[in-house]
From TrEMBL:
GO MF entries: dTDP-4-dehydrorhamnose 3,5-epimerase activity
Annotated keywords: Isomerase
Lineage: Bacteria, Pseudomonadati, Bacteroidota, Cytophagia, Cytophagales
Protein's recorded name: dTDP-4-dehydrorhamnose 3,5-epimerase
GO terms classed as biological process: dTDP-rhamnose biosynthetic process; polysaccharide biosynthetic process
Length: 173
């Protein structure tokens, strides 16, 4: 398993060791000991799964404290352009975003610390799964309009499919 620190503080890409043989493949998608040894000491308390048709954009979402969530996100099948925005008020990179392609070929994962808004474009029909460090709390849900002009994110999609809820998210302050 390879752990790569990315340009926004605390964000880590994880590339698992995939064991292939004549039957197919195997890899460990989470290992508490190995993750702790590489700086991810969180306890994950909820697993989520979603399916998105190609050209769906979900996000940008986050939960407010005390229900803020760190996430370990990956793709079971398909491919996404994963997008995270640093919304930590005291961060030197506040308002900056990072994009990472996650797909079921590379089997790469992204550790997104609490304090980030998260979203993705489904570049193909995609099954997306992720572990969270806090439970879902509807009253704490918040988000940022995906096409916010200030954030100026290229989601690399024409005519995206966006939920009504996401279409009315507030602009970034
Ligand atoms: C997130 C969540 C949702 N729900 C219910 C609430 C809605 O009735 C339904 C669909 O929820 P939503 O439209 O918010 O699903 P997504 O747009 O995929 O939201 C997620 O997508 C982006 C990319 C994220 O990073 C967040 O983890 C999460 O907000 O599932 C639950 O019951 N539990 C949950 O943990």
């Amino acid at each position: 398993m390879e752990f790569k620190a990315l340009s926004l503080q605390g964000v880590i890409e994880i590339i698992p060791r995939v064991f292939e043989d004549e039957r197919g493949f195997f890899f460990e998608s989470y290992n508490e000991k190995v993750f702790k040894e590489n700086g991810i000491a969180d306890t994950f308390v909820q697993d989520n799964q979603s399916f998105s048709l190609k050209n769906v954009v979900r996000g940008l979402h986050y939960q407010n404290a005390p229900y803020a969530q760190a996430k370990l996100v990956r793709v079971i099948s398909g491919q996404v352009l994963d997008v995270i925005v640093d919304i930590r008020p005291d961060s030197a990179t506040y308002g900056q975003h990072l994009k990472v392609i996650l797909d079921a070929q590379k089997q790469n994962m992204l550790y997104v610390p609490a304090g980030f808004a998260h979203g993705f474009t489904a570049l193909e029909d995609t099954v997306f799964v992720y572990k969270c460090t806090n439970l879902y709390n509807k009253a704490s849900e918040s988000g940022i309009y995906w096409a916010d002009e200030t954030l100026d994110i290229d989601w690399e999609v024409e005519n995206p499919i966006v939920s009504e809820k996401d279409r009315i998210l507030p602009r970034f302050n």
